[in-house]
């Protein structure tokens, strides 16, 4: 025997990876990259339009919205996504789903989008009842959907500006009312202090008046000496 170990007995600490291992690594890297891309998409989405954040159509059903939210929330969850802003993107996504789940808030958003749709159709000389499936809308450049998103964005911005101005005005009015109330309280406090000071000096004023009256009487009783 030569004393050399047989090929069957040779062990290596780093066995070569087969094709399936390489595929798994590539898939993981691709998945990680896609998660980061999705986080960036959420940050680029228009924050006043929950449909844009969730990347769903305005006609999506409640179940479709919930399904898309579950899919995206799991995809970019901070535990699975290494993007440093994944937690923030996750919160933005959750807020968007919450707004679309709130019937009143979704109706408000839909009303603005519907108004934007009417404006665009009117600019195209089309009836407001024109469906999205109309062939005349499919031939537009830029596409009708892009126009609708742009018009909706502008209207939502205008609405937000008006809302913030109203809040600011209300706060200013509340501040004015608060200052008026504080001034009224201060005036009542000053009056109470003045009344108390007047009452506290009552005896002193009475004594002063008595002394003055007594002194006046004495002067009247003093006889005038006539010289001559």
Automatic annotation (TrEMBL):
Ranges of compositional bias, category Basic and acidic residues: 176-200
One Pfam family linked to the record: DnaJ
Gene3D superfamilies assigned: DnaJ domain
J domain ranges (all copies): 49-113
Comp. bias regions, Low complexity: 1-13
Region (Disordered): 1-23, 174-200
SUPFAM superfamilies: Chaperone J-domain
PANTHER family, per database record: J DOMAIN-CONTAINING PROTEIN SPF31
Name by which UniProt lists this protein: DnaJ-domain-containing protein
Organism: Gymnopilus junonius (Spectacular rustgill mushroom)
């Amino acid at each position: 025997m030569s004393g050399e170990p047989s090929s069957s007995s040779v062990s290596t600490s780093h066995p070569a990876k087969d094709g399936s291992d390489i595929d798994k690594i590539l898939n993981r890297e691709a998945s990680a990259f896609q998660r980061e891309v999705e986080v960036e998409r959420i940050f680029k989405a228009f924050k006043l339009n929950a449909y844009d954040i969730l990347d769903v159509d305005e006609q999506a059903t409640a179940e479709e919205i919930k399904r898309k939210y579950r899919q995206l929330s799991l995809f970019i969850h901070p535990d699975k996504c290494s993007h440093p802003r994944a937690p923030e993107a996750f919160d933005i996504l959750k807020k968007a789903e919450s707004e679309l789940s709130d019937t009143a808030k979704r109706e408000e958003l839909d009303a603005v989008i519907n108004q934007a749709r009417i404006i665009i159709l009117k600019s195209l000389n089309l009836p407001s009842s024109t469906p999205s499936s109309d062939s005349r809308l499919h031939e537009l450049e830029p596409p009708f959907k892009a126009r609708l998103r742009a018009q909706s964005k502008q209207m939502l911005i205008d609405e937000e500006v008006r809302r913030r101005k109203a809040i600011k005005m209300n706060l200013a009015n509340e501040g004015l009312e608060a200052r008026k109330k504080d001034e009224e309280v201060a005036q009542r406090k000053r009056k109470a202090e003045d009344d108390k000071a007047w009452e506290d000096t009552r005896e002193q004023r009475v004594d002063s008046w008595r002394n003055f009256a007594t002194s006046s009487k004495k002067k009247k009783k003093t006889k005038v000496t006539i010289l001559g």
